[in-house]
């Protein structure tokens, strides 16, 4: 039997219901294991680079997205019980790649990620962040519905 020591749990959050479910599950695991939580919010570069967004970004849209991300992070962090160390990371990039890079940088032992709930066709066309993470990260991944 392999026993895994969990010291650091990365939880990507975006304010969605699946991400909130993953957050709750990850917090429970952190409590049980005395682990540190790293909350990650990615400013999605896929959205940022559309031509229409480029114009809006020049007018402060990126700053607004960062402020919104910070509000999401502050709200999530306020729900972490006392005694659990919680770090927040806000990064711009492609969500799956950024989550994998952050997991490595933070030395994560586990990633707890929400399932987007997309159907098969939508996942094929749009891609799936959880699927990308599963196939490209160095540590175990728990996908929460």
TrEMBL record:
Location of the protein in the cell: Cytoplasm
Entries under InterPro entries matching the protein: Rossmann-like_a/b/a_fold, Universal_stress_UspA, UspA
Pfam families: Usp
Chief location bin: cytoplasm
Gene3D superfamilies tied to this protein: HUPs (3.40.50.620)
Cytoplasm keyword on record: yes
Domain annotation UspA: ranges: 6-145
Cellular component per GO, a single term: cytoplasm
Record's keyword annotation contains Nucleus: no
Keywords: Cytoplasm
PANTHER family linked: STRESS RESPONSE PROTEIN NHAX (PTHR46268), UNIVERSAL STRESS PROTEIN UP12 (PTHR46268:SF6)
Family: Belongs to the universal stress protein A family.
Protein name per Swiss-Prot or TrEMBL: Universal stress protein
């Amino acid at each position: 039997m392999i026993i895994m020591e969990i010291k650091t749990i990365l939880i990507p959050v975006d304010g969605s219901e699946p991400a909130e479910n993953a957050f709750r599950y990850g917090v429970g695991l952190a409590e049980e294991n005395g682990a540190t939580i790293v909350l990650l919010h990615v400013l999605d570069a896929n959205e940022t680079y559309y031509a229409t967004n480029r114009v809006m970004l020049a007018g402060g849209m990126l700053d607004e997205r960062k402020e919104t991300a910070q509000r999401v992070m502050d709200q999530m962090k306020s729900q972490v019980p006392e005694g659990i160390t919680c770090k927040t990371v806000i990064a711009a990039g492609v969500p799956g790649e950024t989550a994998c890079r952050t997991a490595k940088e933070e030395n994560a032992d586990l990633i707890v990620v929400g399932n987007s709930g997309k159907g098969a066709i939508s996942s094929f066309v749009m891609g799936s962040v959880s699927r990308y993470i599963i196939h490209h990260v160095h540590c175990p991944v728990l996908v929460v519905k």
